[in-house]
Amino acid sequence: MAPRTHPTNPLALAVLALLFERPMHPYEMGVILKQRHKEDSIKLRYGSLYTVIELLLKRGMIAARETAREGRRPERTVYEITPTGTEELHDWMADLIGMPAKEYPQFEAALCLLPVLPPDEALALLRQRQKLLEQDIVVLAGQIAGISAQNFPPLFLVETEYRLALMKAEQAFVAGLIGRIESGWGPVELWRGIHQDREATLAKLYRDYGGAPMNSE
Question: Domain range spanning residue 122?
């Protein structure tokens, strides 16, 4: 039997996790995700939420439990997780926690194309990014400290702590990169040459390095 593939939308994982707690209707799911600030980690759109629910229904991971109406409000269908959904939730979580996966952050994509920008402009933008990261770190650290002071269980803040750690690591990397560029890393003269005489500089680069990135081993 071929291994089951997981849905690609992390919002599906969030729906399964919510229904693991108890049955609920889609609107309630959205409200709870916002109340718990999970949209900081999982992209939330109500249109996508209903699409995800339809997908999970088709795969037999959730089922409609009941449809009810409160006053003049539209009918709302309450969903519950199925045994198949519970198994999927466990296996998907195990894969995500235990198996590192290659992701494609936008900043990394920009870094791999950094020579497109002149070095002086790149430096200015990196300094801007560093400043914004420092501000975000202060804000997020303050939020964590404020919530922790209320004796909130740290288990439910772990993704925020992870986000803060990533911000700090990125800030340190950006600061180091700024320092290297300022000291001539690149080398900067070759980098400037790409913008002063692109054809000649790239021809020399291809000749000397075979078109490969300069940091290749």
Answer: 106-185
